[in-house]
């Protein structure tokens, strides 16, 4: 087998979904993660290795790395969300969590949760993706103390405005630059020198190679069959190239590092390849004139699970509505969509909404995360495993989520509200990806800044007033049995709807009892219709109603 036929690339999901789009804690440097790598192996019997349980991570994060417990859980939960689990396991966990009546009971439930230790170490390291500089805290005390100061918030917060999570070139550059550190993190302690670095003849076990498969996968024969790194290196011709020793049943770190540098390439299923070679979709009507044409591309026809991508860009003044197999299990990016109404009514893996303005976006259930960044005047309606918001203003989020919403740096005037819609296939879609209606903590956000958890002096969010709450109607017919909002509404919001309906009923009764003449009824109807038309125009609802009319119908009306 020729070496040139082998390609290894960086997996999309760890960076896309795993790297939180915010500057990491200063203690996530290599110096401290290397110490953690040694520490967990010495405490294997205490629930640290080969899987680390929540209590031990909490002990390390809070006692050694000086992180608040809430922030420690954010990272642990984010990694756990990436791991493969059956729908049954996800729903079982949701049911157990919903039955907890106190924080103590919830903590006891979390004590049962564990993740792969080596992969979790790599997960913590790649949080550096969204840091401006990696020069901080490389040399320091044995374990950081509360006196240790973090880098300047002004410096760190800038990185949170530059989303690298979808940039597959940035992922490749990161791994190429820090390959030495990544290999050291998964090495057994007895393969390190007294200073904690690997030596010339260090050996990497097959167990450690499985850890690296969290970040790397590859193929031969130009990507026809994709394998995790450890499976790829089961093939004898590749083992000799990568430095495998039959005697020690391990890989030479020096040779493996050289082989990886020679074979690492851009992800053939990443966003760059999606736009270059992916299939284009004509999901929106193109508007003539100087307005940029909408761009929609996908790689779902040939990408493996975890790398399926749909990119929707530059939708302008239109309604885009899709319930498509092409969206199922895909990571979707909505980019620069303005003054539009977008309905993506399929179960998806993840969604990012970036640089969108004055739009309403209604999503089907999202298994992992919805991330909103650099948006203004956007309304997002979703059921999701997690939602995070960064550098956005005057946006409203109607959310059903089992995890606390993450409000990152640069936000202003956000509004959080309960999920307020349904469509016929909604509950079926939720069941497909393992999302339940409880627990639902849409109203318990966590504000994260450059220095961790914040309580800003000027609140960046508010809860929607019940008096401003309305149900949202999805204006499309679909097959399915869902006929009401899953999980119902919080009592205050339900009462507001009942009170409003009562006012409408009272008004209708008053009109009926007024005993208007035929001419008066005609005049009254004209006034109401005029006011309603003015309201449609002022609120932008007319644009949405007009865009729901099929183009062929508009043409016939114009011809008539």
UniProtKB/TrEMBL annotation:
It comes from the Eukaryota. One of its GO terms (biological process) is maintenance of centrosome location. PROSITE patterns: C_CAP_COFACTOR_C (PS51329). The keyword Transport does not apply. InterPro entries: C-CAP_CF_C-like, CAP/MinC_C, CAP_C_sf, CARP_motif, TBCC1, Tubulin-bd_cofactor_C_dom. Its main location: cytoplasm. It is found in: Cytoplasm, Cytoskeleton, Microtubule organizing center, Centrosome; Cytoplasm, Cytoskeleton, Spindle pole. The keyword rRNA processing does not apply. GO terms for cellular component: spindle pole centrosome. PANTHER family: TBCC DOMAIN-CONTAINING PROTEIN 1 (PTHR16052:SF0). This is TBCC domain-containing protein 1. It comes from Polypterus senegalus. The gene is Tbccd1.
